[in-house]
Every structure is written in C-alpha cells, then in structure tokens.
Amino acid sequence: MAKQVKSVGELDRLSSLPDPVLCHILSFLGTKDAVRTSILSPRWRHLSASLSVLDFDECIYSVRREYRNNFKNFVDRLLYFPNQSSLKCFRVTHYSFDGDYSRLYGWICAALLGGINEIDISSHESLMLPPFLLTCRSLVTLKLDIYGDINIPSHVCLPNLKTLHLSRFDLSDGSVFRLVSSCLLLEELVLELVEFPRNINFNIHSLSLKKLVLDFEGLIQEFRRDLNYVVVINAPNLVYFKYADMLAEGYRLSTMNSLAHADIGIF
C-alpha cells in the first residue's frame, strides 16, 4: 500500500480495487487509521470521507493539540458534505471536543440531516441539543450522558429507534411516558441518574421493550424524605429488568412472561 506505482508502471493490486471494496476495507479500521490513509494518494483522500464511524475518543488523544484544528476541519468537511459521506455513527465526549460547543452543535445538526443511525454524546456540561433530535427518522441508537434539562417536545417521532440511553438529565412531568411510547420499535431503554418529579407517576409503556434499566441509586442521598410517586411499567415482553431506587409509594407492573433476568434494589 506504500507504493502507488511499480517501476514498470503497473498499479499495485490494492489501488486497483474498486471504490466499494476499498471503502469496505476502510470500515474495519479505526477512525485514526482510516484518516491516515488519505496521505496515500488523492484517491485515498476521497475515500477517507467514506468513514462509517466517527469516534473522537478513539483518535483525538493521539492528535497533538496544535494539530487538532486540522482534525476538526476534516470533520467539518466530512459532515457538511453528506453526499460524499457514508457516516453511520457519531461518538464524542466532553474531553474530545475541547469545549467547542457551537461547533459540536453544528456537527450534531449535520449528522442528523445526513441520516445518521447512531449518536453517542457524553458531556460534563449542559449542552444545547438540536430541536429536531427527537424527530430524526434515521436514528436507531441514541445515547446521551449530559447534565441539564432535556426538552421532550409534544410530538416525538423516532420510528426506527431501538436503543435509548439517557443519563444525568432532568426530565419534566410525563416526558418519559411521552418519549418511550412514541418509539414503537424500542428494544433497550436505560435511564441512569435521571431526575424526574417525585410526586407523579413514573410511567413506561412499551410492547417492544426487551431490556429496561432504571438505575437511580446515585440520587438516593438527595431524597431522604418520603416519596409519593408510583412506578408504572407496562412492558410485557421484557427479557432483562434492572431497578435501583428508593421505595416508591406503589408499583404497577404488567405480567412479564418472557423475563429471564431481574436485578431489583430498593434502598
């Protein structure tokens, strides 16, 4: 792969492969190595835009700080020209985007408009999220670990979402029910350290759900008073169920004939 042309003028076998085959090969490389192939030739520079996974954590720490703007410019080109990209997965954490919030917001918008399948964002700060994040028809996996409020609109449209992880959010009255019941294909729901009004019913209704994790153990120290909310779970096809919280006023659970594993912790 180091040589483009042999002394006899014959192209090496790798470079002679068609673009779809080369793109398939690149899909097995990590983000950093896939981007490095762009130095091989102008043709490989074009192919590096065919990354299917953009994982900042996998590559940003190996980029010297003075060169990180160059990498961010590469991401700009990758995301803002969706017709030249086949990006399916976008992962980023607070450490890897260096607090460049406005740029991150633009990247998320571009990824959503480009038909992204998976978004995984983690931040120790409150982030502004695009209003159309929860109406993206292409999303299959959405993982958000972000401090602050999440505004669940009255109309949620995530028809292809199968995996939803939310951590450290403040959820408003009834927003969990509205969000989950709008995801008709949802199979895995994980809510960790999620704040919600403790004087209402915590209601989850999903016929498609197979894995449910409600882990609020880390919030227990903040709630030493009596709690008067009721946990209502209607998920008859659950296979895995984990629940960790203080004792609620009441519980209403549907029959779970498929349940194979349950981990219940009441503190």
Description:
With 267 residues, the chain is α/β, with parallel strands linked by helices. Helices cover 21% and strands 25% of the residues. It is built from seven helices and twelve strands. It has helices spanning 19-26, 31-36, 42-47, 56-59, 68-80, 101-113, 175-181, and strands at residues 53-55, 89-93, 118-123, 141-149, 163-170, 188-192, 202-205, 211-215, 230-234, 240-245, 250-253, 261-266. The strands form two sheets. It has a nine-stranded parallel sheet. It has a three-stranded parallel sheet with strand order 7-9-11. Strand 5 (163-170), helix 7 and strand 6 (188-192) form a beta-alpha-beta unit. The radius of gyration is 22 Å and the shape is globular. Mean pLDDT is 78; it is low at 1-9. This is F-box domain-containing protein. InterPro entries: F-box-like_dom_sf, F-box_AtFBL13-like, F-box_dom, FBL60-like, LRR_dom_sf, LRR_FXL15/At3g58940/PEG3-like. Residues 11-63 form the F-box domain.
* SS elements, strand count: 12
Largest sheet: 9 strands, parallel
Q: In whole angstroms, how far apart are the ends?
A: 59 Å
- Fraction in helix: 10-25%
DSSP helical segment count = 7
Radius of gyration: 22 Å
- Enumerate the spans where pLDDT stays under 50 for 5 or more consecutive residues: 1-9
Strand order of the largest sheet: 1-2-3-4-5-6-8-10-12
The average pLDDT value, as a whole number, equals 78
Structural class: alpha/beta
Elements, N to C (H/E):
HHHEHHEHEEEHEEEEEEE
Shape: globular
Assess the beta-strand content as a share of residues: 15-25%
